[in-house]
Amino acid sequence: MKNTYDVIVIGAGHAGCEAALAASRLGAETLLFTINLDHIGQMSCNPCIGGIAKGQVAREIDALGGAMGMVADAACIQFRMLNRSKGQAVWSPRSQCDKTCYRTAMKLTLEMAKNLDVIQSEAVDFIVENNVLCGVVNQFGEEFRCKSVVITTGTFLNGLLHFGMRSFSGGRAGDPAATELSNALSGRLGLRLGRLKTGTPPRVLAKTIDFSAMEEQASEHEKEMFSHWQIPDAMPSTIRRRLPCYGVYSTAETAKLVRDNLMEAPLYQGKIKGIGTRYCPSFEDKVVRFPHHERHLLYLEPEGEYTGEYYLNGISTSLPPRIQHMMLKTVRGLENAVISRYAYAIEYDFVFPDQMRRTCQNKRYPNLFTAGQINGTSGYEEAAGQGLVAGFNAARFAAGQPPEELPRSTSYIGVMLDDLVTKEITEPYRLFTSRAEYRLHIRQDNADLRLCEWAHDRGLLPDEKYRLFVAYRDGLERITQMVKTEKYQGRTLWDHLKQTGGDFAPEKLDCPRELLHLPDGATGERIYRELVIAAHYDGYLDREAEGIRKLSDLEMWTIPHDFDYDAVTGLGSEALMKLKKIAPVSLAQASRIDGVTPAELALLQIHLSRQLREKEAGPRQ
Q1: HSE-CB of 54 using CA atoms within 13 angstroms
Q2: Which of 305, 346, 371, 610 is the most buried (most CB within 10 A)?
Q3: Whole-prediction pTM value?
């Protein structure tokens, strides 16, 4: 085996898989480290891809040439489009997946990728020479040299599992923690680490569940998928693709049981030091923080088509197993449920993301990139999006090219990365559609229109996929121009589309659909949907585009890395501290830093203008 590579990726979770694949697609000789080859792409928590804003990210990853969307389609056992009661701008696809099929398909994707080697080995240290990161050392003492490193360790850094007041070292249940690597990050590399916490609910066996006491949630029958491309014939795929989920409520008795046993909850006894996410709280948190709610909605979701395990979404807990059994007995249909895997909380180290740039590049070590939960985020999709950017830029760095950013005006991935480096991360970061100012433009349905051209120009999207995209894009543009000019009964076809009110049902269109000259099949259906959405948001999109233009103007005001903020008279102490800490690369990014006022932004602009005039005038004679 070689011991010299362009890019080394540490960790084969959702971030690591996309990082390794992106780097290898750019032609970089890439090595992927994983502690367990059989746990590549493991769905440690809920076996699903997508959801609010997360579905948009999964489609963006696919448009950028990534694997998540296609693998999710192969492993799909239920598909739904969330937020249908709202506008199309916030519709979000979600797929329940067979977790075994998902990791098998992802593993095969990695194994078939050119320029990519995968090794079952634990990275424990770094090679640093003259303050330059030169490589990675594994637990056997083997040294692997490289030009750039991507770290995607998930919850493994100093991971600690909590089952009540008992704790065990681990990266997740069944896998060891990466303790030596955490020490190397803080010791050898001198990075600032923090501590976060997440958790997972129990799994129960289907044969012990009374589903008749629950509300069935069937899969949608529309032929929706994440990927814009067909699943390869060689990729493993599920057969039963419409397995139902079930809904049920906890009871007042469940809440009382939790309150009576908080003395055995590590979170409330001070044993857990890491901060958990407020958007996905433990069941203990729900009961304590929302005492006025006597019950909470739980979802029972299948873990796969050939397993009897169900994931109990909504009852994540770190209470001991004995209490978990008692809790389930208070829920209708779960009175006799057998727990196959106990719920637990996990604490882990992360690297404060103010130490990186929006390219996922570390400020101290330009050839070090981080992605996923190590950056303080939560969720498979957030991790995978960062991983793709990190792997892409690691390969560019290895090739002597400058890293590139995804703007927040063109992608949810860009929104996330900008937030990570400008906001104070005090809890695991999670994406929502509300975080995006321009969500009319960055919808789930147009990810390819936004990103495929950019990805192909930079080598991320293969030619064969790009040709399919161009055929769709050109067809859409041609028909859009036609419907804006051709008339029917005194009005343009565009005006007729507006009358549908954003409803895709053909019967809502008050003119013959044949007049639109749509192609046959799925392509024609997709063009029709895109036309309806564009017509529905006509005017609103123009106004939002003006906001994007103003943002672009502020992005053009670049701030040098060595900018002297102390020389700007009038900056408040809070703004000065945060500007020096975050080191924004543009006025646009500076404007989103909490504590920087519009007046202070104007002072920065004046100072930059003065510097620019002095530079253009040249040195004084």
Answers
A1: 21
A2: 371
A3: 0.94
Q: How far is CA 161 from CA 167, 287, 317, in A?
A: 5, 22, 12
Q: What does the block give as tokens for 475?
A: 């067809």
- DSSP readout, 367-379? TEEE-GGGGTB-S
Question: What domains does the chain contain, in order, with CATH numbers?
Answer: 4-48+95-200+347-409 (3.50.50.60), 203-344 (2.40.30.260), 462-541 (no CATH), 557-617 (1.10.150.570)
With CA atoms as reference, report the closest residue to 113 among 60, 66, 62: 66
pLDDT of residue 453: 98
Q: Which two tokens stand for residue 34?
A: 């994983």
CA distance 48 to 301: 9
Per-residue pLDDT at 620: 53
Q: For residue 354, give the amino acid letter.
A: D
C-alpha atoms less than 13 angstroms from C-alpha of 221 in its C-beta half-sphere: 0
Return the biggest CA–CA distance within the chain. 89
What is the per-residue pLDDT for 217?
94
CA dist 413 and 409 (Å) reads 10
514-517 contacts, C-beta under 8 A, 24 or more apart: 515/486, 515/488, 516/479, 516/482, 516/483, 517/479, 517/482
pLDDT of 618 reads 64
For residue 388, the model assigns a pLDDT of 98
Question: Would you state the pLDDT for residue 319?
Answer: 97
Q: Which of 323, 341, 337 is nearest to 248 (CA)?
A: 337
Element (H, E) at 344: strand 344-351
Q: Alpha-carbon distance 104 to 71, whole Å? A: 9
Query: Could you tell me the two tokens for 526?
Result: 């997709």
Classify residue 230 by burial, with Cβ atoms within 10 Å: 0-12, 13-18, 19+.
Answer: exposed
Radius of gyration of the chain (CA): 25
Contact 345, 289 (CB under 8 A): no
* pLDDT at 611 (0 to 100): 81
* Contact between residue 28 and residue 115 where contact means Cβ atoms under 8 Å apart: yes
Question: What does the pLDDT read at residue 34?
Answer: 98
| Spatial separation of the C-alpha atoms in residues 409 and 547, rounded to whole Å | 9
Nearest to 385 by CA among 45, 61, 96, 21: 61
Q: Is 190 left (phi over 0), alpha (psi -120 to 50) or beta?
A: left
Nearest Cα to Cα of residue 113 among 177, 63, 58, 70: 70
How far apart are the C-alpha atoms of 304 and 236, rounded to whole Å?
13
Q: Map tokens 């080697």 to a residue.
A: 117
| DSSP character at residue 365 | -
- Give CA–CA dist 7/13, Å, rounded: 17
CA angle 104, 106, 112 (to 5 degrees): 100
CA–CA distance, 613 with 483 (Å, rounded to integer): 49
* Stretches in the chain below the pLDDT threshold 50: none
Cβ neighbors of 495 (< 8 A, separation 6 or more) are: none
Round to whole Å and give the CA distance between 555 and 489: 46
H helical segments located in 139-273: 179-186, 252-260
Q: Which residue has the tokens 């909590």?
A: 162
For 5, the 3-state DSSP assignment is strand
Task: Walk across the sheet containing 48-50 and list its strands.
Answer: 48-50, 92-97, 76-82
Q: pLDDT by residue (tens digit) across 249-284?
A: 999 999 999 999 999 999 899 999 888 877 788 999
Assign residue 171 a region: left if phi > 0, alpha if psi is -120 to 50, beta otherwise? alpha
Burial class (CB in 10 A: 0-12, 13-18, 19+), 192: exposed
Q: What is the model's pLDDT at position 281?
A: 87
